[in-house]
Input
Amino acid sequence: MTGDIPSSRALYARLGVLGLLLLALFDPTISRNTAIEEFFILLDDSASMRNGLDTTWPMLAQQLAEAPGAELHVIRFAAAAVDDYSASIDGQKGREKLLSSPSYPRRLPLDRSATDLETALRDALRRVRPERSSALLVVSDMRETRGQAEHALKIAAASSVPVYGFIPSGEADPGDGAILDLQYPTYVHAGQKIPVIVRVSGSPSTTGRLALRVNGQDRESIEIDFGRRGENVAQIPIDPCPPGICRLEFSLESGTDRNSRNNARIALINAVDPRPILYVSSANRPPPAALGLQRIGRAVRIIPPVEFPRRELDMQSWGAVVLDDVAIGDMVPDAWSALIDGVRRSGLGLLVLGGANSFGAGAYRHSALEKILPVTAEGRDTQQAASVLFLLDKSGSMDQDRGGVSRLGMARRAVLETVRGLWERDRVGLTVFDAGVHEVLPLGVYEEPAKMLERTLAFTPSGGTRLLPALESGVERLSHDGTERRILVLVSDGRFLEGDFGGIEKKLADADIEVIALAVGNQAAMPALERLARMGRGKVMHVRQLAQLPRLMRREVEKYRDAAELGKVAPQSRKTLPFFTDVVSWPVLSGYMVTSPQPDATVFLESPNGDPLLAVRQVGGGKVAALPAGLNAWAPAWLAWSDWGRFFGGLIDWISAATLSPLLHAQIHDGPGRLELEFEALASDKSEWAEYPAVESVVTTPSGRTYRIPLNRIAPGRYRGDLPVSLPGIYRAVFKAGDRSLQTAALHESEEEAGSYGNGESLGDRWFREGLIRPWPSDGEIAVDSPVAVSLRPLLAGLAGASYLLLLVCERVGGFRGFLCKKTTKND
Output
């Protein structure tokens, strides 16, 4: 057999082509060091930059001209981004023209009403070619009002594309009056002067006036000389602020002002110190608990309920409020609103101490105060329901008193308020009387008895007064009722036609009916009513001031509603207090107000019956604690307890508004459409970061709404979270980690350019600190951090293709054929 057999050289050539293709498939790279080949310049031309771009451009253009090797791309941005220069389009001549301009040559119009840095960054990153060494330079004040540039900056970092930043000096237009900069501390101790440095500008050789307001009050106004350069710096030591958030408002007036939007700045400063305690008590002498706080060194101010502040702003100077046996009617509605807003918004601590006039007996049930307490004024489910029948006098004498106030109208209001405080299981009825008896609401259990009564209480006073038939009707209804507790509430002016009650007193006693009689007016038949109440194991009250009737009725009914548990009580620990961990046993109590815990409350002490004796709840930014036994008549053993000062002082410190700690640091960064919350914590010995399983911030908006924001761990001891916001104003935040807390505040500005600045570290400052943006060197010389990886796939694929073509040519062209192949003959 005779045939052609390829030579070994041709075989090796084919294997070589196959090897090149396999290498190209794996895409190997080589590293090479190089200078910047592509340079993207991002220029902020928004209104907040004023003329910063034009003043910065000559210096920047000179530095770029001295680096001729880099290919330039210039993107100008504000509310959108536009291409002003590209080397591939404009060429060398365009570059020379751009860099030789004394001010920046804007080629396209741009909406300057906003700053969208994210769009400009993403536009530049899309053009970056992986095979070329590239860098970005951002010339901006870093005050974005749209987008989230941080996302794009993190993409650049992940792609090893360095981003440099340059913030212009912020010079105002020549002659324009402006506050250029504020420097101030974020935290100061209360009582310490606040050092503030203000840099202002204005028309050269003229003067302006810098005004200061502190917490809404005019503080001072000083004259500023702008000098020959049109700029000056004022150092202003501000008088100490009370503890809390101190708001400083600076405004500048000058005769040649052309942009009023840069004439004002706001600074928020946290004035911290252990704040004094506001102790509220109706007692004629200082309460023992208040005196005990003073003995252990706490600053305490004792006031009666009628003097309680009526504005939330007045709450900010107190660390905590103690209500000692205070009823709802003891304070006006505005005072309760100020207290509740102080707890929710300002982180005010609140401690409510029980007593005979508090909780169920103090009309707490369904009140605004009860909504923030850790307990409700309704007792445990095992207590029996009661039947409450109201007997309301509607005779003609119940019309207006001498002051023009309707006795009957006030009595209707008293019935409604009292019914709102009853328990859902209670049976309610209403009978009115004059010369006759009229059943308005039959005795029974109703889903919403107050609403039913509102529809049926529309009647006018008329006729005489026959009390005996009304009492007999009431006794008849209650004596056939199945409940164990029967209460008859009588409201009348006491002008009866009867000389006696015909033995009704004995019927009341036999039926075990308790009587609460409220006599209104100065002509009430008090002896007859007192005899009636005595037989009914009740009480008679002479109401001389009609305005007191609703409060007195509700308080007395709830007193008879088993609101208190009297007798010796041994408190039992249910959970260890974080500030008092080594207690062995608790002193006994002689009584307490019966309550039930709220679903989100923590009960630390309870009675053998399971009733709360110490419960705590977080409400907005503040802690609220309740001691239903109080620290007075029912707690003599507590006041004599050797650990009383340590316990009560620790409790007050624990619930009080957060103060400055050297181990904690919190910041709020204001961004477009959001606040960024940061929290850092050190361990007690300051040697390492503190770790917590859960960290959160309770933020109160300018409208008073609160949000609970969980913070994510981003590094040891560091936590961060975001809150979407839209409403401009002051946002207050209380950061909590374990049993440690710290409060701060920040100003969220409107989504506009050239507005006033708030406090805290800016986003730009943080980007520089975290390395997402690098400072632009003063000489403009930058280099690639690491060698650029160059792909060998195109080279290998090209070599494989060329080798294969060469092989085909060699095999088919005679001159080459003999080199690669030779003919051999074999004989079979």
Summary: Confidence is low (pLDDT under 50) at residues 1-5, 754-760, 822-828. The radius of gyration is 41 Å. The longest strand covers residues 244-254.
